[in-house]
Specification:
By secondary structure, the protein is of the alpha+beta class. It has two helices and five strands.
């Protein structure tokens, strides 16, 4: 689950990004993040920002933004939507309409 604050036309902020520890490392987190970035890029947004607040329980996600190509700027991790967006090739997304 994720929540994105579409602050303005220039940047979006990832407010919440939650995953079960059982799913981490299988490519789901990268797929979700690439989906956020692709939607932002399509909307003309230049930057995606995320904040990592360390706790004992989220230690496995400590390098998540860095590993995906975000750069640390102040308190935030920032991704320029002009960068290459990587998506795991072993996961296929399908949209099911009611």
């Amino acid at each position: 689950m994720y929540i994105v604050d579409k602050k303005n036309d220039e940047e979006w902020i990832i407010d919440t990004f939650l995953l079960s520890c059982r799913i981490m490392g299988r490519g789901v987190e990268e797929t979700m993040l690439s989906q956020i970035i692709q939607k932002a890029k399509s909307a003309g947004v230049k930057n995606i920002k995320g904040e990592f607040i360390p706790t004992k329980k989220n230690k496995p996600a400590e390098n998540f933004y860095n590993d995906y190509g975000f750069k640390k700027i102040g308190d935030y991790w920032v991704f320029d939507t002009n960068q290459k967006i990587s998506t795991p090739s072993h996961i296929k997304l399908r949209r099911y309409d009611d």
